[in-house]
């Protein structure tokens, strides 16, 4: 009887222990939506998928007439001081002919900088429509450090002094040719005398390019922009008397390239407003309607 009682007690204890263990295991399994956490715990969310307070600012603007030496120096000082004060980072190329910037910063800091820039030189930078804002980016999109540096050209074409000079202002910005909306540019592709010129570099053009049916496409296949003047002189017979449609990524390379073509005797020069990026965004917006 004593043995049986001991066996019963042992069985009861074992059953109780098993039940407790099962309950504990069930409790552990229930945490983490039915799965036990991996060694080291659950991974943190991918920061690239999160939204945040970082704003990316992309813009360029040519100034007409170009700044004098003292005006250029003051512009460099202004850019560095204003961007630093508002916690902005990135790269700002400052030439006598204008600005070319890729910047990041807090939403309010970027807006405060653009407001100050518009007040600093309203004739050149007073139109907020010239700024491209990309808001709600995660912190890992913030560029490291701030670099404001002087350059001789916003795009290094290597033009000789007096070549490729912008003498026309549109929407507050210097431009070398006619700025077409994406729809106008698309319509111009069907013009019987249309010739399309890609002024991006070779590595960009091989990724993708416009190939409208029936329109001659001239690709300079440039490794660097300094090759453009020589290409123009070798292909003037294909450009004169034609409706030239130029494009690049954001528009900045087309501006002085168009001015250079004009000086070379090409008359009907056009570019898509804000480059391929602008045309792509316009088409995307139309698709969302």
User: What is the rounded Rg?
Assistant: 30 Å
How much helix is in the residues?
25-40%
What is the number of E strands?
A: 12
Order of helices and strands: HEHEEHHEEEEEHEHEHHEHEH
Given the C-alpha coordinates, what overall shape results? globular
What does it look like?
- It is a single chain.
- This protein has 289 residues and is of the alpha/beta class.
- The chain contains ten helices and twelve strands.
- The strands form three sheets. Strands 4-1-3-2-5 form a five-stranded mixed sheet. The chain has a five-stranded parallel sheet with strand order 8-12-11-9-10. It has a two-stranded antiparallel ribbon with strand order 6-7.
- β9, α6 (202-205) and β10 (216-218) form a beta-alpha-beta unit.
- The chain is globular and about 70 Å long.
- The chain starts with a helix and ends with a helix.
- Mean pLDDT is 81; it is low at 1-32 and 276-289.
Describe what is shown at a glance:
By secondary structure, the protein is α/β, with parallel strands linked by helices. Helices cover 39% and strands 22% of the residues.
Which features characterize this protein?
289 residues, 10 helices, five-stranded parallel beta sheet, 22% strand, disordered N terminus, single chain, 39% helix, alpha/beta, five-stranded mixed beta sheet, globular
Lay out the secondary structure:
Elements: H1 2-30, E1 54-62, H2 69-85, E2 89-95, E3 98-106, H3 107-120, H4 122-125, E4 132-137, E5 146-150, E6 168-170, E7 173-175, E8 178-180, H5 182-188, E9 194-198, H6 202-205, E10 216-218, H7 228-234, H8 236-239, E11 243-247, H9 252-263, E12 268-272, H10 275-288
Parallel strand pairs: 2-5, 8-12, 9-10, 9-11, 11-12
Antiparallel strand pairs: 1-3, 1-4, 2-3, 6-7
């Amino acid at each position: 009887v004593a043995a049986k009682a001991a066996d019963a007690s042992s069985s009861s204890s074992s059953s109780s222990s098993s039940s407790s263990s099962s309950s504990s295991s069930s409790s552990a399994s229930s945490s983490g939506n039915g799965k036990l956490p991996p060694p080291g715990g659950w991974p943190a969310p991918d920061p690239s998928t999160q939204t945040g307070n970082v704003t990316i600012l992309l813009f360029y603007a040519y100034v007409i007439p170009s700044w004098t030496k003292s005006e250029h120096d003051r512009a460099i000082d202004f850019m560095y001081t204003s961007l630093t004060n508002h916690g902005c980072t990135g790269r700002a190329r400052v030439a006598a002919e204008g600005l070319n910037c890729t910047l990041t910063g807090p939403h309010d800091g970027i807006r405060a900088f653009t407001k100050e820039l518009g007040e600093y030189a309203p004739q050149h930078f007073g139109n907020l429509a010239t700024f491209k804002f990309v808001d709600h980016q995660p912190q890992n999109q913030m560029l490291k450090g701030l670099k404001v540096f002087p350059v001789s050209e916003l795009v290094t074409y290597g033009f000789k002094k007096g070549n490729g000079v912008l003498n026309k202002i549109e929407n507050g910005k210097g431009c070398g040719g006619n700025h077409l909306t994406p729809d106008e540019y698309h319509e111009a592709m069907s013009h019987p005398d249309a010739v399309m010129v890609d002024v991006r570099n070779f590595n960009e053009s091989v990724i993708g390019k416009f190939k409208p049916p029936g329109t001659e496409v001239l690709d300079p296949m440039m490794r660097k922009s300094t090759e453009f003047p020589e290409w123009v002189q070798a292909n003037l017979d294909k450009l004169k008397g034609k409706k030239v449609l130029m494009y690049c990524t954001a528009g900045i390379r087309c501006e002085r390239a168009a001015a250079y073509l004009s000086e070379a005797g090409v008359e009907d020069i056009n570019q898509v407003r804000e480059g391929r990026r602008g045309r792509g965004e316009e088409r995307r917006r139309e698709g969302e309607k």
